[in-house]
Design goal:
The protein has 250 residues and is an alpha/beta fold. The protein has helices at 26-38, 78-90, 104-113, 116-122, 139-152, 180-185, 200-212, 217-222, 228-248, and strands at 13-17, 45-49, 66-67, 71-72, 75-76, 94-98, 126-134, 158-163, 170-171, 174-175, 189-195. It is globular and about 50 Å long. Mean pLDDT is 90; it is low at 1-6. The strands form 3 sheets. Strands 3-2-6-1-7-8-11 form a 7-stranded parallel β-sheet, sandwiched between helices. The chain is built from 9 helices and 11 strands. Helices cover 41% and strands 19% of the residues.
Length: 250
C-alpha cells in the first residue's frame, strides 16, 4: 500500500506553480501536488489551469481542472484575474493553480503589483509558490526564474521541485543547496521536493506513459494500461513523493 500523505486536512491554501521556462514539468508538478492533496481525507482540491497555450493540467480528467483565460495577447485579462482572485479568497479548499511559461512574467508582475499574496493571506489563505528547477540545458533558465520569484514575492512559502529528468541539478560541481542563488534566498524556501532520475528503461518509460495519457497514480494502479511490475514502480514513485510533500508540512 502507498504511504498516506497526512492524517489531517490542510487549511485553506493556494498553490501557484510558477516558472518562466517552458517544458520543465510545471504541469506535472501541479498534477502531483493535486494528487497528494486528493489523498488526504477531508481535503477539497480545486485545480485551475491558466496556461494560455497548453492546457495540460486541464487534460487530466481525474483532476477536474478548470481553465481560466488570464491573458489577452501579452497582457493580463484583469477582469478574469479579479474573478479568480475572488474565488481564491472566498471558497474553501486547497487550490492548485498551474501557470504557463508565456504568462509567467505578466502574471508574476500582476501578483506583486496588486499585493495579491498579502490579500490572500489576509483572507485566511496560506499561499505557496512552487518553482521547478531542471537539469541539462534549462538549468540556468530555471535558476533565473527561481531567483526572480524569490526576490520579488513576499512569501517564505516557496517549494522547490528538483526535476532530474534531464539530468542532475548541478553547476560547477555544486548542488542546488550549495549554490549562491539558494544561499541568498534560503529564508524564502519552505521545502524542497526531488523528482529523482531513475532507470529510463523502466521508471522513465512508466512516468512518460502516465504523463502522456494524463493519468493519475490512482488511475494507473486501478487500470489496465500498466502491468503489475510497472504498477509497483509507480507505487514506489508515489510513496516517495508523498513522504517528501508530507515533510514540507502544508
Amino acid at each position: 500500500m502507498s504511504a498516506k500523505p497526512a492524517k489531517t486536512a490542510p487549511k485553506n491554501s493556494v498553490h501557484f506553480t510558477l516558472q518562466g521556462k517552458g517544458g520543465v514539468g510545471k504541469s506535472l508538478v501541479s498534477s502531483l501536488l493535486a494528487q497528494y492533496f486528493q489523498g488526504i481525507e477531508g481535503c477539497t482540491v480545486k485545480c485551475v489551469d491558466t496556461d494560455p497555450v497548453n492546457q495540460t493540467l486541464a487534460n487530466y480528467k481525474a483532476l477536474n481542472a478548470q481553465h481560466v483565460q488570464l491573458m489577452n495577447g501579452s497582457k493580463i485579462n484583469e477582469r478574469n484575474f479579479d474573478q479568480l482572485m475572488e474565488r481564491l479568497m472566498t471558497e474553501d479548499g486547497v487550490f492548485v493553480v498551474d501557470n504557463g511559461a508565456s504568462s509567467f512574467v505578466p502574471l508574476s508582475n500582476y501578483l506583486i503589483e496588486n499585493n495579491a499574496i498579502s490579500m490572500l493571506q489576509e483572507a485566511g489563505r496560506e499561499v505557496f509558490i512552487h518553482s521547478v528547477l531542471t537539469g541539462g540545458q534549462a538549468l540556468m533558465d530555471t535558476l533565473a526564474g527561481f531567483k526572480i520569484l524569490a526576490e520579488q514575492a513576499d512569501t517564505r512559502n516557496m517549494v522547490i521541485w528538483l526535476n532530474e529528468y534531464f539530468g542532475a541539478i548541478e553547476a560547477n560541481g555544486k548542488t542546488f543547496t550549495e549554490m549562491k542563488v539558494y544561499a541568498d534566498n534560503a529564508d524564502k524556501v519552505r521545502g524542497i521536493v526531488r523528482i529523482p532520475e531513475r532507470n529510463q528503461d523502466t521508471f522513465g518509460k512508466d512516468m512518460e506513459l502516465m504523463a502522456s495519457k494524463k493519468l493519475t497514480f490512482a488511475e494507473v494502479l486501478s487500470g489496465t494500461d500498466f502491468a503489475l511490475m510497472a504498477k509497483q514502480r509507480m507505487k514506489t514513485v508515489q510513496r516517495d513523493l508523498n513522504e517528501q510533500l508530507a515533510a514540507v508540512g502544508f
